[in-house]
Structure of diacylglycerol O-acyltransferase:
Amino acid sequence: MEIVRDQEISEPLSPTGQFMSNSVLSLSIIAVMELEEPFDDSLSIIPFLKDVLLPINPRFSSIMVGDKDEVKRWKKVEVRLSDHVNFPVFTAGMSAQFYDECFDEYLSKMATEQFPQSQPLWEVHVINYPTSHAASTIIFKFHHSLGDGFSIMGALFSFLKRADNPSLPLTIPSVQLHTSKYGRTFSMFRKVLTFFSCAYNSASDFCSSIIRSCLDKEDETPIRSGHSGVESLPVAITTITFSLDHIKQIKAKLGVTLNDVITGTIFLGARMYMETVSQGSGQCMQYIIGAA
């Protein structure tokens, strides 16, 4: 990759971006796009990425460099798109269950690999094999320093088009809430109570965490083994599908947000795993699940 002149060095990385890109910690955002139809290689994804993806954000065509003060900055480079697009090859003519396993193994391996520092920190992986969920799958991998999950998803949604009218950009329906004056007053009162409740719980949890870390040794659990070097152990990624209608039903019944439902589901799954591996180890997560 050929680096352009030094005048192309732009703004420094944000503190969060620098924190997430070092020899100890490197975080990535992975987005999986499942297609109902097999991906047509003849469409050539390279021109598409050049004309659509790269112009969205200048960081997609920049690398990290350090200045004389050892502050990381973005530097514009010439992007060789062929280095960013991968077409994994699996055994042909196998069942969807076989390709499910291949997909999980490939995703687990790809997710833990470090980005080459000599090129922009993003990749596209096209898996043109039918799984039980899709005819083809496209995986986008972005380093977290390029943006947070919200901005990255916004960038991906920006080049999607509506199936009924491709000339229009993708839109997500918004919900308009109509409440009476009494309802608005009750809602404001509820927000005030929620604010003070969150402030109290946050302060209480913070103080208890400080006390436990100073006085008590944290118990070992199936999630926290206490062994050194766990960050170097193999990682396996599996997927599970939830019905959005079921999540909305839970949201409406409990009067919470979608994030609350998903977070509670994750904590419940973690607790069930801990209880399965070691009886009684999930008790330490009980109060978290109750709060979620």
